Predict the structure.
Amino acid sequence: MAPAAESSAAATRRNSEEIAVPDPRSGEEEEAEAEGESSAIRFSPEEEATLLSQSHTEKAEANELFKSAQYSQAISLYDRALASVPNYLEYEIAVLKSNVAACHLKLADWKAAVDEATKSLEALDRLDGPPPTPNPSDKKDERAADRVEKDTGEKGDDDGVVELADDDGDEGEALEKLQKDDRRKDDIRRIRIKALMRRARARTEQGGWGNLQGALEDYQLLSTSPHLSPHLPPSSISTVRTALSTLPALISAAKEKEMGEMMGKLKELGNGILKPFGLSTESFRFEKDERTGGYSVGMK
């Protein structure tokens, strides 16, 4: 081979070797960067409208399947509708995830229902933030506001008339925007209530100490949150009240059962360890502290 040809071949090999050199960054870094680029993609208004139209069509078909009790087929169509929704449209995602949770409830797939309802709530949290948990100071503030209104005839700032900013230009447009924002807040609250109700029911049906405790917390939030409680439908109010009265006893029984099972397993493990020494767990005394629910161990 001529020297020029050899030089050209060597250069080609060097280039190939350089291309094949792996990126010194870890795979996790590359994946994180790819996810960041993906989440940053936003569609044009026209593209977004086309995707949403397709998603709404598939959702409407899924709704019909749900009404006809074809729940598995409905889940498939809801998933297709989700695939069409841009990943930054959290409200649309929350609605579809809540609907999927409803399908899993009908199929008695409690774990899947909990997972999907949780994803719906997470989407709403990203969109609007979680509802604030009530605290004692809220009651004091309400009483103080009531006294101010009673003494002066004037309401506090939160209950006053919303003043439209002068720099909005067209007051009609500003008022329309406020009304649209209020409707969106109402929609978010409505979906949050549905998702919480569905997750609480699924957790209750799953049973077990942790699931029942989680269900109680969901029902307590629905019952006590000033952003949710006044907007519960009558049927949900009855369900929440019943759950709040029955769940504490179920939680206590589940806790006792799981603690007993855990102690049984610990006894088996202890007997295996103590057997070579001619001892067993029967050589020890287990005493329960009724105040704390814990156990102490001593020799008999």
